[in-house]
């Protein structure tokens, strides 16, 4: 799938932002084209995580919008993913169950899940 993400937004955690310092992201326009390599660099607190959360659909921008292949992003979707910096596994579940969790949420059947999860567990030498 050819993917293009377009941003035309600003974001503030304040109800009524009055100055630049009230914004996590000042107004920006940006296009990420398929096949490109992009990096977000900046000091702690400059809005990198806010931008990624907006692109993924986890946070709605306070102004403007994000589109993915021309469709507005309003919620998380399987075509976009975030890999969190913090530990993001369910410690009470097995390796198999952690991997299967997302597939179940997407409505995959038991046979498909078993085949896919076992293949990836084997590929990583975790059998």
Please render the helix and strand layout as text.
Elements (H helix, E strand, L loop, with lengths): L4 E8 L10 E10 L15 H9 L6 E6 L2 E2 L22 H11 L4 H14 L4
Antiparallel strand pairs: 1-2, 1-3, 3-4
Helix pairs in contact: 2-3
Secondary-structure element order, as H and E? EEHEEHH
Counting DSSP H or I runs of 4 or more residues, the number of helices is 3
Uncertain segments: none
Query: Would you tell me the overall average pLDDT?
Result: 89
Side-by-side strand order of the widest sheet:
2-1-3-4
Q: How would you sum up the major sheet?
A: 4 strands, antiparallel
Could you tell me how far the N terminus lies from the C terminus, measured between alpha carbons in angstroms?
A: 31 Å
Based on helices, strands and strand pairing, what is the structural class?
A: alpha+beta
Share of helical residues: 25-40%
Q: What coarse outline follows from CA principal-axis ratios?
A: elongated
Estimated share of beta-strand residues: 15-25%
Based on DSSP secondary structure assignment, what is the total number of beta strands? 4
Rg over C-alpha atoms, rounded to the nearest angstrom: 18 Å
